[in-house]
Specification:
The chain is mostly beta strands. Helix content is 11%, strand content 41%. It has a seven-stranded mixed beta barrel with strand order 1-14-13-17-16-15-19. A hairpin with a 5-residue loop joins strand 8 and strand 9.
């Protein structure tokens, strides 16, 4: 079986802390569980339940920056202030995330105070003990997500806006250029070579109200769900209001912006 050239990697977006702003990267090591530090941290309430931007919209406007060793963290807050310090792991706890119980450690330091003030409720920053635990659909083996760049222009047209929709709204790991809108739907079940890695898309990603939030401000300013219902409702997808696909990693490898994408 031969591969046919399909497209190239347009962007790589990682979210080291779930719910907070994504980071744009030039390359990643994609392992069988995904990118090691993607969604490695999350924010929890006093009951150990994961908090996302559906519950605290302003989280998406907080920009985290780690050093290369992930030992120091800076949070750039929406009001222009910043909080910084070492990543010091404290007590163990079990985090409830998507119906699963996952082992984690509290990150000691100024994080709880700063994030609690923003959330207007007590919260803590935690780090999962193992990589891949914070990825959506981890219980199905998901390690990556793919979205055609042209899909952003398609939803913009449906929403009645001129410019392509900001991809950060959808928090996808890989954007694919040079392909038609929503062609990623047709890749489900196929082996897709991306850089030196191979992934197998397993299903569509249904969307929620978080995608309506401006990634800079955390304010809802684009009705992405109405746009999807307008032009995607009749599509046969594994989840409703689908936009992009999730994938299992069949072969680990390095993925860089500009790398070719091939479908077997």
């Amino acid at each position: 079986m031969t591969d046919s050239a399909t497209g190239r990697v347009a962007w790589i977006h990682s979210a080291p802390i779930k719910a907070l702003a994504i980071q744009e990267l030039q390359q990643v090591q994609l392992d069988l569980l995904g990118v090691e530090n993607d969604r490695r941290f999350c924010i929890v309430d006093p009951d150990g339940k994961m908090l996302n931007a559906k519950r605290v919209q302003r989280f998406v406007a907080v920009r985290p920056r780690f050093d290369d060793a992930m030992r120091r963290l800076v949070l750039y807050m929406p009001d222009g202030s910043k909080v910084e310090g070492g990543v010091d792991l404290g007590r163990a706890l079990a985090v409830s995330i998507y119906g699963r119980s996952v082992d984690a450690r509290v990150v000691d330091g100024p994080w709880a105070e700063a994030l609690s003030a923003l959330a207007e409720r007590p919260v803590e920053l935690v780090r999962f003990e193992n990589p891949g635990e914070g990825v959506d659909r981890a219980d199905e083996g998901a390690g990556a997500s793919l979205l055609a760049e042209a899909s952003l222009r398609a939803i913009a047209k449906a929403a009645g806006v001129t410019d392509a929709v900001d991809p950060r709204r959808f928090r996808m790991l890989f954007g694919i250029a040079g392909v038609e809108a929503h062609v990623e739907d047709t890749w489900i079940g196929s082996r897709v070579r991306i850089g030196s890695a191979v992934v197998v898309p397993g299903g569509n990603i249904g969307r929620c109200a978080v995608t309506t939030l401006d990634p800079h401000t955390g304010v809802s300013n684009l009705d992405t769900l109405a746009a999807l219902a307008k032009y995607r409702a009749e599509e046969m997808t594994s989840e409703p209001l689908a936009f992009g696909v999730w994938a299992r990693v069949a072969q680990a490898g390095i993925v860089r912006v500009g790398d070719a994408v091939h479908v077997a």
